[in-house]
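Rotation project, supervised by the postdoc (A.L.). Task for the rotation student: set up a whole-complex structure prediction and record inputs and outputs verbatim in this book. Inputs entered:
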Amino acid sequence: MSLSEFSLIENYFSKLTSARQDVSLGIGDDCALLQCPSGKEMAVSIDTLVEGVHFFADVSPKALGYKSLAVNLSDLAAMGAEPAWFTLALTLPEHKPDWLRAFTEGLSLAAKPANIQLVGGDTTRGPLTISIQVHGLIDKRRALRRDGANIGDRIYVTGTLGDAGAALKRRLENWSPEVFEETDWQYLQQRLEYPTPRYQLGQQILDYASSAIDISDGLLADLGHILERSHKGAVINPAQLPLSASLKKLPQEICLPLAMGSGDDYELCFTVPAEHADKLEQFDLNIHCIGEITAEKGLRLVDETGKEMNIDARKGYDHFGT
Amino acid sequence: MSLSEFSLIENYFSKLTSARQDVSLGIGDDCALLQCPSGKEMAVSIDTLVEGVHFFADVSPKALGYKSLAVNLSDLAAMGAEPAWFTLALTLPEHKPDWLRAFTEGLSLAAKPANIQLVGGDTTRGPLTISIQVHGLIDKRRALRRDGANIGDRIYVTGTLGDAGAALKRRLENWSPEVFEETDWQYLQQRLEYPTPRYQLGQQILDYASSAIDISDGLLADLGHILERSHKGAVINPAQLPLSASLKKLPQEICLPLAMGSGDDYELCFTVPAEHADKLEQFDLNIHCIGEITAEKGLRLVDETGKEMNIDARKGYDHFGT
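Outputs recorded:
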């Protein structure tokens, strides 16, 4: 372990975020000591990002720091948990204080609005790898799980879909549709590098939703996890998928597979019993009903008239050209 | 994430360990859900092991799995916490089911006696890296910290010191003292690959100890952390360091620096107020008093007569020959 590197992160970080009352002992001992309020349980998730697998070697360290924490916060969002604490295991090929400072700045950018505190970590020498574990708090037995969807529940997603996938497609395939202007690319790149974890919304839907997941692998894949765990099927109307102004510039046969098959948006997909849905829609939540849970297994795509559509979106963004 | 690899670990693992009552939701959702009993707080630590830095490329996967968890359990031991849950972030260069099975077997070997449950994880493709985060439970405000040592406290260590360092020295320097037989090497290698985390003892000394740390970087370095945090000094009698029968075969000028300077033993070093020490020594705990906390800063080595000794052990095992 390199104390100096972790100290650098810690020192820089402590200036950028506030200390929580429920941390009895923070960084600097063999363990951190944390207090979980009675009546609450703890939601825990760990995610690793590896250079060349989850991010490009030339990614800005600030964006990397931000996204490393944001994708974990997204897991807390999917349970409806309130962010509380996180730890960081950082493996670095060399000591670069400027890189570390920018990385920490990005981390803080995600941490500060979430009121989540860095409570421990480990810095090691080796190929660039980032493991973050997040801890959130939630009232006992109230967490949103993947296995709670019921027949007739409406299916919702937050924000817009396919944006991050479009930015990734440009990078991987040198894709450059004529309709896109520089401002479109800026927006899409921002969506890829700085996704917005929906932990506030996750907590807001707790009283209404029956199941939830965050969209990291693509809508169809992740909704598929809900269906599998809940032993149900679903029908989706692709025309109702929320698309950004940039993505709407594309023809449907390009943008719909992106919206359904590409990951990295880190929006939420969740189900709501019909009797709760009307109430939920009265709030100003930026959520969109895209379909319904069915008894019949599998996932069908239908248009407004009920006609089955045949868009091969399961294969995702990397299987079709412009 | 490769579901198949993590599923393999999970499936194999669940057969080898039992499920805890305080796990509301285990592996398979966005987060695990864990219950911390009221009156307890949670001790949390994360450690990363990187191939070529923390272990040799040819290490047996079973030993690697064992040690990855054992070194984290040792952090819980140092706080006096009871092991409860852990997560695993595993980055692997390729899919090798046999390797994974052996690795998981080693993990279980450490997990089962500790009654610690695997509650989440992530498997990614990349250079072999293992991050484990452990969670332990401890009564509020009772954890052993590094900053509690007081003047006159006796200093104790568990087990024997320098064994793992000797095995490492053989590997790094082709070191082969004539006095060692094959059984000595087997013992020393076992100590390096399968260290015994002292979490039971950590809980047993809670009523008596004023501070504690685990010895991962060497006695002098780790005791140094206690002294630094507690703003105290210490005097140690090297003749009182507990040595294994194998290490005792070596002349003092070889074995003492190993016992004081080499890491990887994962024994505990802790301090006990004199009024508690006699009581503690009545139990059969395999602990050894090696010195005393002093007002005078720094760490001095003295023999039985009080004469200062001049063994340059701070430089550790890799600076002297046979």
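Student's summary: The two ends of chain A are 47 Å apart (CA to CA).
Supervisor addendum: Residues 314-322 of chain A have pLDDT under 50 and may be disordered.
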